[in-house]
Amino acid sequence: MASNRGVVYVEPGKVEVRSIDYPKLLNPRGRTANHGVILKVLSTNICGSDQHMVRGRTTAPAGLVLGHEITGEVIEAGKDVETLEIGDIVSVPFNVACGRCRLCKEQQTGVCLNVNPARAGGAYGYVDMGGWIGGQAEYVMVPYADFNLLKFPDREQAMEKIRDLTCLSDILPTGYHGAVTAGVKPGSTVYVAGAGPVGLAAAASARLLGAAAVIVGDVNPARIAHAKAVGFETVDLSLDAPLGEQVASILGTPEVDSAIDAVGFEARGHGHEGAKHEAPATVLNSLMEITRAAGKIGIPGLYVTDDPGGVDGAAKSGSLSIRLGLGWAKSHSFMTGQTPVMQYNRALMQAILWDRIDIANVVGVKIISLDEAPNGYAEFDAGVPVKFVIDPHGQLRR
Predict the structure, then answer these.
(1) What stretches of the chain adopt beta strand conformation (E)?
(2) Same structural domain for residues 108 and 185?
(3) What residues contact residue 139 under an 8 Å CB cut-off, 6+ apart?
(4) 336: burial class by Cβ within 10 Å (0-12, 13-18, 19+)?
(5) CA 260, 200, 211: angle at the middle one, nearest 5?
(6) In terms of domains, do 10 and 100 share one?
(7) Does 235 fall in a domain?
């Protein structure tokens, strides 16, 4: 039988590369999945969402195979697969979606009703998301392949652009979704909270959508410096100067048209002392303060229903002290939830192939081997301004 290796969650702060089962055309409940394919993984990325699990901030079980950002080559197809062939190179949306339920038919693939018995929405290699095996591995099974997979039109071109195309499985559509739901349009002024990969993808997406000014804020000096180096305005949230004042120093006004939360539930406070401590409502409350009346706030940052490491009892159950009255008074619109990747990935693929967006450079893609994955997790957790992309078979150019 063919072998397989993958990145496995062991305990808080620890992942290992282990031998794992070679994938079969079966769903997590053991039913035959003739609608699926087996992929040889070409690239698979470490995501900030993975880090939440690895830090012990979720109920992830030991032995979970990680990874929901996958690009691969079809090497086996079930008998019901009609539109894909052996050798096709494809991008895998991180959402597992059936393509048959009401929400999938409405392109709300982030909350598919059929792939997770516990609740709406499924994902690969993630806690409470249906039990689908993760793709930080040499091989992975993808169900409902005709519906889920985005085929690249030219193999040679895809390999040439793989550093950018690997971002199509999650962070680029997620950042784009944040910008779209924040109402970014030509001439907009935009503030993005968080200079990690998703925040930078959101900033790049805002620029693609025609924003006049894009400001990125963080407490991490290295990430702030990287955001500035790739062309964005920046603010340092570890300073005691209020966010509105820092925005005003750039725009001449303390408000923006659109704001994006690319931080999520592990947010830190603002200011010299505040930045040392977790304060999960800080980002959302600050965005309401600086977003103009009738403005929109996109929230691609992850929030959870259970957080064992929360700062207090409320946070442990996903309850935050949000100033909803402020948002209500300013007639703000909010959009939360998993990104429905398929709403955006084909158009964003075209933007990459036609050199309209340089996403690999913006997010700092760095290719590593599968065996280097544990070190990549440690470096990413330490805050380096890098998007780690795992190359399980050594086929990509470093």
Answers:
(1) 5-11, 14-19, 37-45, 70-77, 89-92, 95-96, 122-123, 139-142, 150-151, 189-193, 213-218, 233-236, 256-261, 291-298, 333-335, 365-369, 387-391
(2) no
(3) 2, 4, 22, 23, 38, 39, 40, 41, 75
(4) middle
(5) 60
(6) yes
(7) yes
Residue 299, both tokens: 């929230």
Tell whether 12 and 140 lie within a shared domain. yes
Establish if 27 belongs to a structural domain. yes
**Is 223 in a helix, a strand, or coil?**
helix
The pair of structure tokens assigned to 171 is 């962070």
1 half-sphere exposure, CB direction, 13 A CA radius: 8
* Angle of CA points 258, 93, 305, to nearest 5°: 65
Residue 397 covered by a domain? no
Q: Which CATH number does the domain housing residue 102 bear?
A: 3.90.180.10
Pair 97, 21 in one domain = yes
163 and 16 in one domain?
Answer: yes
pTM: 0.97
Shared-domain flag, residues 158 and 122: yes
Distance CA 70, CA 27 (A): 18
The per-residue pLDDT for 306 is: 84
Give me the pLDDT at residue 318, please.
86
How many domains would you assign to the chain? 2
260 and 221 belong to one structural domain: yes
What pLDDT digit, counting tens, does each position of 152-171 carry?
Answer: 999 999 999 999 999 999 99
60 and 136 in a single domain? The answer is: yes
Q: How far apart are CA 236 and CA 89, in angstroms?
A: 41
> pLDDT tens for residues 364-375?
999 999 999 999
Contact 145, 37 (CB under 8 A): yes
Q: How far is CA 238 from the centre of its chain?
A: 24
Q: How far from 365 is each of 165, 202, 360, CA to CA, in Å?
A: 11, 15, 5
Helix (H, G, I), strand (E, B) or coil at 74: strand
Residue 325 has, within 13 A of its CA and on its CB side, a CA count of 1
